[in-house]
Amino acid sequence: MHQQRILVLVGVSAKDLKGVHYTLALAERITTKVFIVQQSKGEGELEPHSVWLEEALHDLISSARLAGLDVTHLVTTGDTAGKIISLVKSEGITLLVLGVDDGDYENFILQMKPHLPCQIVQVKEKDHISYL
Question: Which end of the chain is more exposed for a tag (fewer CB within 10 A), N or C?
Answer without folding.
Answer: N
